[in-house]
Amino acid sequence: MKPKSFIGMRCSIAGALELIGDRWALLIIRDLSLGLSRYDDLRASTGIPAATLAARLKHLCVSGIVERVRYQERPARDEYRLTPKGHDLWKVNVALREWGDRWDASGFGQPTTEMVDRQNGRPLILALVDAATGEAVPRERSRLRAGPGATDTTRRLLEADM
Amino acid sequence: MKPKSFIGMRCSIAGALELIGDRWALLIIRDLSLGLSRYDDLRASTGIPAATLAARLKHLCVSGIVERVRYQERPARDEYRLTPKGHDLWKVNVALREWGDRWDASGFGQPTTEMVDRQNGRPLILALVDAATGEAVPRERSRLRAGPGATDTTRRLLEADM
DNA sequence: GCATATAACTTCAATTATTGAAGTAACCAG
DNA sequence: CTGGTTACTTCAATAATTGAAGTTATATGC
Asked: Which of A13, A49, A74, A85 is most buried, by CB atoms within 10 Å?
């Protein structure tokens, strides 16, 4: 039967996962943000089957994460680029990479990439900061609070761990 | 045919996605980190079909993200908890939530939750910081650099955007 | 004693999705 | 006119997901 949709769940994580699509999608997005843009390059880099790649790219276009750009006429050829919405997913990939490196998810033992400061080469990681001031806040000092669109169920769950 | 495995790709993102499993897994992890732990609660909260939930939980246990804990004998009943490895995925979910809220992925218009500082109630977001000092660094000042385990292909790609 | 309830699943057949292999379309180069 | 490039599509086989219903072991109410 048809895979269930998350839509209607009133959850931004569920919505995000729905827009992204599946496990291949974040790899496609990873490659696009690394500078790849052509169908065949994406295929070679990810190893994704041709039919699946075509389907994923279509989905990502509909979701507004990727756009198709004609880069030559005769013969007509299109490439794929991240939209601003797609670029904005970078934190998801950084978080996945950090976690994957920390727990050796690739099984290879050594990280293949690392994020560093352009100016001094020092390693960078994701952390919670005050949205206004940019000051770092340790995770223990953070709390998830019900927002304007919270359901009663969500509200009850969040109150439990105040 | 059998869905392709990412293993062997030498990429921590691919590895992480493989360990996590699929789109349901992050919702399960979201609920576990919110305090749910019982099979039926997870089912009710996510709407995931029973058979699929059982399969996902098994996979997450094998991946070391979730553990099964007996909480009563007679009748024997187990609940599910995040391991430290599982808890450590929090940044992925925070990043997904931020993105989902920013682009209204749920289609609801209003965020259901928000991360705030316990001490002053101010909103928190994920940002890049110096791993050693905790000082925030703007994204434009960051660079992805080849790590010790990088393949030649990766190295070439990264050099292109120096 | 017996029906009902609870919790955590399992089983099943039907339906979709994914896959690898092969093929297509539109051109260009020699 | 043969071969190469790029971006796919088509196909049949296989695998995964689904909703509905059933299972197991026990407790609870009457």
From this structure: A13
